[in-house]
Amino acid sequence: MSGIRPTGRLHLGNYFGAVSNYVKMQDAYTCYFMMADWHALTTLQETKDLRGHVSRMMAENIACGLDPEKVAFYCQSHVPETAELYLLLNMLAYVGELEKTPTFKDKVRLQPQNVNAGLLTYPVLQAADILLHRATLVPVGKDQEQHLEMTRNYSNRFNQRYGEVFPEPYAYNFGEQLAKVPSLDGAGKMSKSENQNATLYLSDDDETIRAKIKKAKTGSGSGGANVGDGGGSEQIVTAMPESVANLFQLLRLVSIPEVVQKFEKDYEAGTIRYGDMKKELGEAMVAFIAPIREKAEAIRHDERYLRRVMEQGAAKARTSAQATLQVAREAIGLNYY
Ligand code: TRP
Fold first, then answer.
1. Does residue 250 line the site of ligand 1, with CB under 6 A?
2. Domains (ranges, CATH) in the chain?
3. What pLDDT is stored for residue 237 in this prediction?
4. CA distances in angstroms from 326 to 49, 84, 165, 333, listed in the order given
């Protein structure tokens, strides 16, 4: 089970860090993937774009290979059982712990004018999303580790107080280590909150992709391993600058090994031409992103299809949710008749 907040657009980092992981899981497990629209309300005061964001995010995930026939792909707000479990879990969540949660403290700093209770109990709602399906594997990034630990705490407290109902969920990634997707500005990862020009979106058009890569930071000059400065005759072997290593990493993600090897050789020989490398990377990136973008565009505007996906996803999610809530209510003693 995992959730995606419908704010903004998917970028290459989301693709390799999250969506490709979901796509691999869908053939091996019973999966629930959810658009966390209620979670989005904790930070959105203006909601007129919500519908557009949800359609876009659903379309982009499907275009990346998420198959609504194989998984339950649904909107949080279409599964009201989530709210009931959230209420029950609130009895097990201590205000002191919630106030200490790093993500809450970050939000308080970012939006001091809107420190709402939804923000405080964000991790309780997330725990409800997960425990609703009694899920054990949660494909999320490192930034969600704290929320998962809190989910395990609520699960254990529930079981101790009322009887064994919930398992312990853990962060999960399918197969090997997730690929890192570096930003184009020479440092850090691609992210939607950082420099927009250093992030490649799955909705970027071909020219935008080429232009962003053209402007990406590289090492100075054309030298690779042999960087002499100041005319000394000695060869100074320096480590590959991060900006160059990042270009190689991006090339590895979207190009073929032969191309990567060619530029690695050039780099070692000190004959690399970053302009050529970027041109190659640009074309490989266009070939990677364009089909996803075009598919997503078509899906995004197919309202009937999206409605069907949402209805079908909600139906699957509610079946699982209702079974869990029945057991939870019984454990608590809320079954009077
Ligand atoms: N908090 C998650 C994020 O910001 C989104 C999310 C909501 C989620 N509910 C979830 C993730 C349940 C995993 C499981 O990315």
1. no
2. 2-181+303-332 (3.40.50.620), 204-296 (1.10.240.10)
3. 61
4. 35, 11, 10, 11
Cut 0.90: pTM above it: yes
- Spatial separation of the C-alpha atoms in residues 212 and 197, rounded to whole Å: 6
Distance CA 141, CA 17 (A): 7
Tell how far the Cα of 337 is from the centroid of ligand 1, in angstroms. Answer: 35
- Provide the pLDDT for residue 235: 53
Active site includes 215? no
Q: Is 36 in the pocket of ligand 1 (CB under 6 A)?
A: yes
Q: What is the DSSP string of 206-238?
A: HHHHHHHHHTS---SSS-SSB---SS-SS--B-
Distance from residue 122's CA to the centre of ligand 1 (Å): 9
75 C-alpha to ligand 1 centroid (Å) = 12
Task: Ligand 1, residue 4: give the atom nearest the CA.
Answer: 5
Active site residue 100: no
The mean per-residue pLDDT over the stretch 10-14 comes to: 95
For the segment 273-299, the average pLDDT, to the nearest whole number, is 97
Mean pLDDT, to the nearest integer, of 54-77? 98
Out of 24, 70, 142, 192, which one is annotated catalytic?
192
126 CB under 6 A from ligand 1? yes
Whether 238 has a pLDDT exceeding 50, the answer reads yes
